[in-house]
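Complex record, six chains
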Amino acid sequence: MSVNKVILVGNLGKDPELRYTASGTAVCNFSIATTESYKDRDGNRQEKTEWHNIVVWRQLAEICGKYLAKGKQIYIEGKLQTRKWEDRDGNPRYTTEIVADQMQMLGRAGDDNSAGPRREPRQEPSMNQSPPQNNYDNVQFNPDDDIPF
Amino acid sequence: MSVNKVILVGNLGKDPELRYTASGTAVCNFSIATTESYKDRDGNRQEKTEWHNIVVWRQLAEICGKYLAKGKQIYIEGKLQTRKWEDRDGNPRYTTEIVADQMQMLGRAGDDNSAGPRREPRQEPSMNQSPPQNNYDNVQFNPDDDIPF
Amino acid sequence: MSVNKVILVGNLGKDPELRYTASGTAVCNFSIATTESYKDRDGNRQEKTEWHNIVVWRQLAEICGKYLAKGKQIYIEGKLQTRKWEDRDGNPRYTTEIVADQMQMLGRAGDDNSAGPRREPRQEPSMNQSPPQNNYDNVQFNPDDDIPF
Amino acid sequence: MSVNKVILVGNLGKDPELRYTASGTAVCNFSIATTESYKDRDGNRQEKTEWHNIVVWRQLAEICGKYLAKGKQIYIEGKLQTRKWEDRDGNPRYTTEIVADQMQMLGRAGDDNSAGPRREPRQEPSMNQSPPQNNYDNVQFNPDDDIPF
DNA sequence: TTTT
DNA sequence: TTTT
């Protein structure tokens, strides 16, 4: 009885990060920027950029890790999810992410947005970054789990 | 060159809060829940509820303040916006909200989702709540501003 | 490299029609109305209703046949598809439908939009209707086919 | 109490056609293709292309007429509308179009999807084409009308 | 053909 | 941190 849907078209700010949970499930993180232009009260054109944290799981994670790169323009469809975590002082903190289940690379073949792997899919060495980076180490997925979030 | 769109169908967790900026612009805040059901690894049906903070401005804010109420099911369309604020220790904190520009009340006349004002639009007494409540007092809008965010 | 998405919230004009292809694949057809209100040049409020033909396949078709009914308000997500057929004079004709892959019943339990089967899922006796009714008799699906359209 | 929304990312099949109603309102028509790939029952990758007729009004029509061209990849957001017309034998016919209110050119500067006017906005000489081309000649709009469809 |  |  509910709908939770996000649709974004934007550009990656950095290369995506592909990782694996302890049980071997692929997860890919990256952020994309959307920019809105508007006129301020003086009639001058201004821009406002919004950054969105994207999480992708399983097969689509592998594809994102393999084909996406900094600067690429993509279409993302997914759902909003707010994740709770604790900062170093044990205080509760919340981070909102888009859990994407569809991704389309935009632009046409021949430009930087063309198909074809950009590089060897690079697995990130570790996950010691401070939040909002998720640490999935303590998540005990089976690789074939139908992960519900 | 970008798209930032959120579509939600969910139910209000509380009555909406209608306020006005110092310059008289109406702003309405409320949160809605979306619930997803899935089967866990034991095959049992589980539910996961997500809460979304909604912000509405100007005329639509007045409508939301007047017609929405706790429990009502609505359709929301808007954009994602992450707002930065400081906690009491001066640390940067971020809250993600949906700035809605379309709202539809769902359900049919005769149920609790019917049309007709639920009450006198209630203006909240103050805005001294802790974040993620936005404090718009220091925002100097003109009422007719084309507020860009 | 493309996106084809339709999102509708509207009411069924009639009970849905559930059928099966020769190979046993369930297909459900119904139409929903969306209504837009606007002001004409005299400032009078006018309404314009749009009718949308919905097609649903397989498991979701069974659900729609079982739970939907005339008047119910639903959320539909799917894709646009234009189907070519021939009228009685052999002229080519085109009908645009929404092939839905997600459906949500709206409203809350207790009203007419509540859950629970409305009746025995009724299979339509035949398909001798004139277009835009699709005649799937000559479609040779295997029940488990991953029907691509 | 309803929602009627279409979201497309696709490529123009031809240059857009910019026209004006008798009262001077700009209207732009073009079609875009979306392509879906799937595997047939033999496991072979197949493609299915869908064509969508787009109608844009007023200021956005001028922009589309000026900047869009055959082959360009765009994002379109709008609503479904089925228009009734009569064929030469006086039989009723129906054409479904997307009335777009948002358009974004995709891809990055430097490729064929770059910004900058492609040519002088070309006004089509006449509108004697057979349907589904709309003939707006008998529509009596005032240029500033808030055209409701 | 629905609904408000 | 992107892009225009």
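Note: Chain C touches chain B at residues 7, 9, 73, 75, 104, 106-108, 110-113 (CB under 8 Å).
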